[in-house]
Amino acid sequence: MSNSFHFGDSVTQHGDHNIGIVKNQGPVDPQAALRELVAAVQQLRDQVPTEDREVLDESLEAIGDGSEASPSALRRALRNISGVASLVRAGAPVVESVRRILDSITS
Length: 107
Hints:
This protein is mostly helical. 56% of the residues lie in helices and 0% in strands. It has helices spanning 30-45, 50-63, 71-85, 92-106. Helix 1 runs antiparallel to helix 4, helix 2 packs antiparallel against helix 3 (71-85) and helix 3 packs antiparallel against helix 4 (92-106). The longest helix is centred in the middle third of the chain and has 16 residues, at 30-45.
């Protein structure tokens, strides 16, 4: 069994004349999105340099369980995590998790 993540649309096309993609994405549960982020960051930690691990750890600590962090501290921590993740090929799941959390707190 694989430990890989899949985020985003899954599209299957059969034949010709297919038009568009049906989006079946409901509202994001902020706590579920946060758990998803923590799991993705834990997988990413071993693939980044020590300095970047420190940024990830400090950011996760600042976020906590999401309920205690101020909105500005939460956004700053998410930006830091996304920044580190965007520098490595394996960071795509982390970047997507950050996007989902940001979507859930701004909607």
